[in-house]
Every structure is written in C-alpha cells, then in structure tokens.
Design goal:
three-stranded mixed sheet, about 5% strand, mainly alpha
C-alpha cells in the first residue's frame, strides 16, 4: 500500500527510540531461534482459563499456561497467592514477589490476592512474573533495562493481554471493583500506547499478525499499533534495521559513523544512546558526533554533547562549540554542554566566566551541572562566591540532590566556608542546618 503523505510517528522521537531500544534488547536476549511464531492470545483465551477455576488454583493455572508458551519449566516453582503484608518494598505495594533459596534459585512466586477480581490484570502480572523467571532461570542476563519484563510477553503472543491491562482503564476498573490503591493498579512501567507500538515493531520485524486483532485492543494501544505499523511500513524509520537479529551486535567505527550520518533521526539518536551507554568513545567517531551538534533535534544535540563529556581528548574547535551551546543553547542542551567542558585550553578564563554567568541565572538542576564543571578547575573568578551561595540556596529550596557538590566547591574557593554559610543563611535556620550537615559529611570524607 502507498500512502500519499508521510505518516506521523506514533511517539515523540526520544520516546520512540527508547521504546525501540527496549524492544531490540528483548529480541537480542531471546535470539531468533527462541522467538516463536505463536498465535496471538485474546481476552477470550484468558476467560477460558479462568472459567470454573477455584481461587486457590488460579495463579498456578495461569503461570503453567504462560510458562508453557515461554517454554520454561515451572515444576519446581510454587505459584500462589501471597500475604499482602509481604508484598511491600520501600513503602510501595508489589504485585508479585519471588522467594529464593540460599543459592538464589526461585522456589516460589506469590501474587497479590486482590487481583483475583481483575483476571486480565492478573494474567498480565503473571506474564510479567513469568518473563522475569524466564530470564533468571535461563541466565539470559544478570540485569535488564526497565520495561523488559513487560515487553517480553509480546514475543509469545501476549500483546493484547499486556496492553489491555495497562494503567489508565485498569485504574478506573479498580476504583469501581475494589479499594486497591493506585500504585497497585499498575501492571508495570510500559504504557498501553508503548505496548501498541511494540506490537507494531513485532509485526514489522517478524511478519507477525498483531494487526489482525487491533479491534480487540483498548484505544491507546490500538493507536500505537496502527500508527506505528503505518509509519514503519511507509518510512522504514527506526533505530534498528529490520534484519538486525541476523547481524552481529558488534559495530565497527565505520558502521557506527555510517549510522550517525544516516538520514534517519531515529537511527542517529539510537546510535548516540548506544555509544553513550558504552562509556568509552573512539576518537575516530568525533567527526561524525561533531556534525550532530547542529542537528535540528535538540535531543540528538544533547546526546552528542554528553558523548563529548566521555571523550578523553577534545579538539579545541569542538570545545569552543560546546562553550557556545553552554551559554546560549536550550536548557537541556546547555546542561549537557556544560558537563562536557573541561580545563586545559587557553581560553579557560573565558569558559569560567561563561559557566559562572550561567550559574548566576539558572535553575537548580543546571546549577548542579555548572558546579560539577567548576570543580574540574583549580582557579575560579573572585565573584563566584556570591553566585555560588545564591545557587546553593536555590538548590536547598528545590530539594536538588547534589548539594554536596555546592558545599565542596565552597570549601575550595572560600577560606572559611562555615562562616560564609552562617552569614548568608542566618535568616534561614532550616537551610543552614541542612548545609552544615553536608559540610560535616564533606569534612569527614576529606579527613
């Protein structure tokens, strides 16, 4: 089919690429041989499982069915309802929990009993638990990105079950049926719209048939599937290529440079995210990354700047570009550019004035980036003290979590930092107490 216009993407650029990266991570974990051509499950399949099943046996029956689709053995795992008092962590309710033996092997899975009134949500949560058990028991990965356990069931036909149980409608349903709190009504961290787009990625990548059951999906999931599939089929604009599983995951510098110069913003951003996540940056990638400092998408510019912060050596011309962005760029780009600046250039004094000027008028989060960069330098402008004290005050008021950086910089540039704090915050005893506690911690660390 040929569309006379370019379809709109199903998600904003960064959101779309993050979703694609999670999908690709799951696909690589499984590998092509593990990805079945399984039929798509519908709510009717869950109705058949739940029908005439007594309350005590329901978790085990669902887990056994889902586990059979995943090809995992659950014979040694006891799956049942758990005491709600055992389903909390950091003050928040959990939907399931694992019990492990001394060797770390999962021996039991307990589900929250209040989900008995919500069979589709129970099926989705059981699928998430089965996905986590699957990855753990097969040692596929020691750690996985957030959202992996919610996306993996899609590869085994559970897309509609996962999408229809996600967040918003479940909240309305919960309030009408039980008194389960908001946080317990969530299946996970992936929205129905994202799950719909992941179904589109699955159809596009593996020639599957989620599109055939679009009418059974809730509206936002249906939108993600429909718009996503049209967009992919028309534009082929994705952060990974359709046949990516048939290629080695390792990328040479030439391949990475080619991706950075690709005409797809999704491919460019996804590649930048990969390079940034890897930490080490090959010097031969600097020219291609430099070109992206002037990209039309701010998020691509931001990641390019973040990558330069990981480079051991920067050309003077690139450093000057970062200085311009640090002074005049949009806020999110300014933070990244400031973080990438470092000493060692003949214009260090000018750069210190730029960063100090930004610090004087910026928000607390940007202030933390400025202070982190100023700590890289041995010498500082004399007028930095007043600016720093004002910024520290804003950071305290906003709850910014990098106060220790501000206190450490004050210790470096002021001969009597405690006296400076007491004088400046004499009318704010709460802020002073917080900062003196940070000062104590800094002094203990230094000693």
């Amino acid at each position: 089919m040929i569309w006379p216009f370019r379809p709109h993407p199903p998600l904003p650029l960064t959101h779309k690429v993050e979703c694609e990266r999670r999908f690709a991570t799951v696909a690589r974990l499984l590998g092509r041989r593990r990805i079945p051509s399984a039929s798509v499950l519908t709510p009717a399949d869950i109705d058949a499982l739940v029908a005439d099943c007594v309350h005590e046996q329901l978790p085990g029956r669902l887990f056994a069915f889902i586990g059979s689709r995943f090809a995992v053995s659950g014979s040694s795992v006891d799956v049942g309802w758990s005491d709600p008092d055992n389903l909390t962590a950091n003050g928040r309710s959990l939907q399931y929990r694992f019990e492990c033996d001394d060797a770390g092997h999962v021996t039991a899975i307990g589900l929250h009993p209040e989900m008995n009134a919500l069979p589709y949500q129970l099926a989705a949560v059981t699928a998430v638990a089965a996905a986590e058990y699957f990855i753990k028991s097969d040692s596929l990965a020691e750690s996985v990105p957030q959202g992996t356990f919610e996306i993996l069931p899609l590869f085994f036909g559970f897309g509609p079950i996962m999408a229809n149980a996600a967040l918003r409608e479940a909240v309305d349903q919960v309030s009408a049926v039980t008194d389960i709190p908001w946080e317990r009504s969530r299946v996970g961290t992936v929205s129905a719209l994202e799950l719909g787009y992941c179904m589109a990625l699955f159809d596009w990548t593996f020639d599957a048939d989620y599109e055939d059951i679009a009418s059974l999906l809730r509206p936002d999931a249906k939108e993600g599937l429909g718009k996503g599939l049209r967009y992919l089929q028309k534009t082929v604009d994705c952060s990974f290529e359709k046949g990516f599983l048939d290629r080695s995951p390792g990328d040479s510098v030439d391949i990475l440079s080619g991706k950075l110069r690709h005409n797809s913003s999704c491919m460019q951003l996804g590649t930048l995210m990969d390079i940034h996540a890897a930490g080490a940056v090959d010097a031969d990638l600097v020219p291609a990354v430099t070109e992206l400092l002037h990209h039309r998408e701010v998020e691509i510019q931001r990641y390019a700047a973040l990558i330069f912060g990981q480079c051991q050596n920067l050309p003077r011309a690139v450093h000057d570009e970062l200085a311009i962005l640090a002074e005049d760029g949009p806020v999110v780009l300014r933070r990244a550019a400031i973080s990438a600046l470092r000493p060692g250039f003949e214009n260090d004094n000018d750069l210190l004035e730029i960063v100090t000027g930004v610090l004087r008028r910026c928000d607390p989060t940007t202030a933390a980036a400025c202070i982190s960069t100023l700590l890289k330098y041995d010498l500082h402008p004399e007028h930095l003290i007043d600016t720093l004290l004002k910024s520290i005050g804003s950071m305290v008021s906003s709850g910014e979590g990098n106060l220790q950086l501000g206190v450490e910089l004050l210790r470096r540039i002021h001969g009597a930092p405690r006296a400076a704090l007491r004088e400046y915050f004499q009318d704010d005893p709460t802020a002073l107490a917080i900062l003196e506690e940070q000062m104590n911690a800094a002094e203990d660390t230094a000693s």
